[in-house]
Amino acid sequence: MIFNSELSGQQQHTTSPVVTGGSVIALVYKGGVVIGTDTLCSYGSMAAFKNVEKIAQVSKNTLYVSSGEFSDFQQVVKELAKIDRSALQYDDGVHPSPRDYGNFLARLSYKKRCKINPLYLQNVIAGFHNGERYLALVDIYGTYLESNFVTTGFASYFCKAIISNYWNENCTLDQAKQVIRECFKVLFCRDCRAHDMIQLGYVDEQGVHIEQAERVETKWDFNGFKTRANEKLHTQ
Amino acid sequence: MNYTEILSPKFEPETTGTTIMAVIYDGGLIIGADSRTSSGQFVADRCADKIDYVHDRIFCLRSGSAADTQTIAKYVRYYVDAHAQELGRLPAVATAANLFRNFLYEYKDSLSAAIIVAGWDPYKGPQIFTLPLGGSVIEQKWSIGGSGSTFIWGFCDANYKENMTLQEARAFVLHAVAHAMYRDGSSGGIIRLLNVTKDKIEREFIDYKDVPVK
């Protein structure tokens, strides 16, 4: 049939996302790593799904979040779960470390990039293993970067300055969480595809903790905002 | 066979330009849909049933290309049937949703299909799963879809409440679908409602003259 895109023999693959998740911010702190994301999935410009849990627990000490096409995020969660399951088959008690997940995801993303069929995602993997904190960004092409702080999407434009000024890698968990909250306040004010309900998750020595969604407080009742009126410009 | 019509650049595939909706209430769920199947500007079927049977207590609401969604629904119906035979008990709604999801995700570039899977199972009660274009799966307490849904987001956000009674939920779905049909050229005709509970399935046919908003 003429409408079958597979007729030509080559499968075309989409490079444009449909349902997308927003910015992700992750910071290392003294005892672990904390990630924050909002709870919105957008359908183009529409804020379609407002209560989505986007922080995935991949293993006892690894968290995975991503921004970009939500169906690809769900697919990656399945792929990462497969690794742990197949590791169980060796029955030697050895589990993949956070870095193993990060590396796997980088290889998978690169393979798909080479076939011009990418996982349309900016991925963040965070973990705590053998007393060491782990945080990495894997982008749509499979570029793998380990770092002490990671931002995706709009957060990369707005939030790096906030992070540089108010965070250091040995701060406390509460300090790191507060920096992330400040970042999402700015994002809510300046990013059309952001939402003020966010969710934080952190990994430390004890394991993974994912918190309830919370609302960030933003201030709109500035005097300048309230008393702003166009008629004043033209009638004085 | 005459291909000239299909090969013409103006040929529009038959789609379910549509309004579909599902809402969970206290004790079950209500599904509603309009009845118009359009082929471009022509109404190909004015009395369609868009509430597709998947299993005894699992239904799917189809929007997008009629050919794509009917075919996928046929496969999923078959898989769920075989699965339920082996299981010996009612299948989980999430199972059906996942089977749909596998199609929509693997063939995301060739398909134009967005589906709402709604049903009741003995494990988690009434559930609704929304599967938009790319193949994600999102569980919700209420869901609207199809071209008509764009006109009623405001109405639904304003009028939805948690834990509605059957009567409240039925009125909510009926009015929402009616409002969508009122403004969307690709939705119209009659409204079909379905009430899914633990004990039974109740279909309702709302004649054109009884549609609350015209």
Give the chain pair forming the largest contact, with residue counts. A-B, 25 and 19 residues
Radius of gyration of chain A: 20 Å
Quantity of strands of chain A, as a count: 14
* Fraction of residues in H or I helices of chain B: 25-40%
The structural class of chain A is alpha+beta
Large-scale geometry of chain A: globular
**DSSP strand content of chain B:** 25-35%
Order of helical and strand elements of chain A: EEEEEEEHHEEEEHHEEEHH
First and last CA, distance of chain B: 42 Å
User: In sequence order, what are the helices and strands of chain B, one letter per element?
Assistant: HEEEEEEEHHEEEEHHEE
Parts with pLDDT < 50 across at least 5 consecutive residues of chain B: none
On the 0 to 100 scale, the average pLDDT of chain A is: 90
Low-confidence region ranges of chain A: 1-10
GO molecular function, one term (chain B): peptidase activity
Subcellular location (chain B): Cytoplasm; Nucleus
Organism (chain B): Paramecium sonneborni
InterPro entries (chain B): Proteasome_bsu_CS, Proteasome_sua/b, Proteasome_suB-type
Task: Describe it.
The complex is a heterodimer of chains A (236) and B (214). Chain A is an alpha+beta fold. Helix content of chain A is 32%, strand content 30%. Chain A is built from six helices and 14 strands. In chain A, helix 3 (155-166) packs antiparallel against helix 4 (173-190). The radius of gyration of chain A is 20 Å and the shape is globular. Helix content of chain B is 30%, strand content 33%. The longest helix of chain B is centred in the middle third of the chain and has 22 residues, at 66-87. Chain B has 214 residues and is α+β, with helices and mostly antiparallel strands. In chain B, strands 1, 6, 7, 8, 9 and 10 form a six-stranded antiparallel β-sheet that branches. A five-stranded antiparallel β-sheet of chain B has the order 11-2-3-12-13, covered by helices on one side. Chain B contains five helices and 13 strands. The N and C termini of chain B lie far apart (42 Å). The interface between A and B is medium-sized, with 25 and 19 residues.
